[in-house]
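## Example record

The block below lists the input lines for one assembly entry, exactly as stored, with component labels intact.
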Amino acid sequence: MPGLNFDHIPPLHIPFRFFNTAPWMAVIGALVLLQGLSDASFSSQWSAELLALTHLFTLGFMAMIMLGALFQVLPVISGETIPAMLWVATVVHLALAIGTLLLAAAFVSGQVALFAYAVPVLLLAFVSFLLALGPRLVKKISGGDSINAIRFAALSLLLTVTLGALRALGYRYPEFHVEFANATTLHIAWGLAGWLSLLVMGVSFQVIPMFHVTPNFSNKLTKWLPLTVFVSLLLLSAQAGEYLQHFALAILCSALGFYAGYAIWLLGKRRRKLPDTTVNFWRLALGSLLLTVLLVVVRYSDQASGHLLLASSYASLNVVIGIVIIFGFACSVIIGMLHKIIPFLIYMHLQRQCGGNYTEIKSLPNMLDIIPVQRGKTQFYLHFGTLALLLSATVLSVMGAVAAVLIAFEFVYLGFTVNGATRLYWKTRHRISSSVQTLQ
Amino acid sequence: MVRENLLDARLLEPPEPFVRACAILQGMKSGEYLRMRHRRVPYPLFDFCRDLGLCYTIINQDDIGCELVIYFESDSEPLKSQGVL
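Predicted structure tokens for the full assembly:
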């Protein structure tokens, strides 16, 4: 596996502005859910408050961190600088935050005019991001199979955004509504099985062996798995007959299930089996991915067989699948990784600032001081509890309010963790600058 | 004879390899070198080496990891004659 190139590492404030914003978007999501909660909120994925919550999570929390992390990761694993990075990051960050809030407001208020504002702002965010990073991804660059997975993830993002924009504009301008079968299902599939899963795969190929001292992923797996996922999604989208669709879905589920199982097995091969919160988050995430695959197989096998034994439960089953993949898989990976990469990035930036001054290097905060271990543990228990409550809310509507309160609490806690680490960075950076000036 | 300091960092989590290597390099004198084994090329360490005026060379690299030596330029000839470089 290639080494990482830190010559092109961007300033810390670029990814950290995304990391510091994201938890508060999730808090807003929880408040929106709490405010609009009814007995029917968790009975269908189409309830307004659930649509708003979903997009505040997928765009405001997940995409916010994933795009911020890509501004950090891509130059490091590819050795390529992103031109005008500060400007691009500023536009992407602001447009994504504003666009997400507008979209959530459109869903909650039912004022379709708001979609006409939300969509262009969100398009500005994603198009700016893809235009800036796209050319670097097209070129032959280092980064191995991680880059291939990120390439497929970027293409999936493009398709997800296009389908989502068409759908949202269809609400505002029904006369121009482009009708094609399963547009929303494809939007969800490309977003969650494509953009999300492929990016997690690509990043995990690097970070699981690096941070958790495991053997490397198999070369064959890193080469073929992202391609398999992407091609199966293309086949699903082709709408070329029922059998081909079932075949594509079977391949997609097998690939994602195999990835999850393999990564769990790899984490079991850690060479230093020290307690680590991020490993717990990974296990919860990968277990949730396996559960998602299982639920999707059950749901669509029932439909395809014609038995329709679960037909009356499809709506709530869809909500359960959404909770497991978004909150159980995606949020677990993201929160777990934040607890690992934030201390690492802060330490690395401070260390670079110290140059060859070993006295300063020795005085840097330990990784475990940047985010204390206990905070990580508390975050994990909060997250696990919130996931359980969210799932229980699909059966007992009264649990919805408790789940919403716990989501808010969990992400306020995360927001303070990220903010605390950021403040420690600036304080230490200032101290090092003063010390270097004194020496001069 | 140039004396070897050995650091096997293959089982250490980031940034421990960097921290331990820095501690060794800081106290290293001419007539000594560091042989380091790592799972990947430790690029951030190279900045530190440059600041200390030390040379570095990757002597082995494969899919599993790499082995590098960090030394004083004045020791390069003896290290070549020892077969290290």
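Chain B touches chain A at residues 10-15, 18-19, 22-23, 26, 39-44, 47-48, 50-52, 63-64, 66 (CB under 8 Å). Helices of chain B lie at 16-27, 43-52, 76-81.
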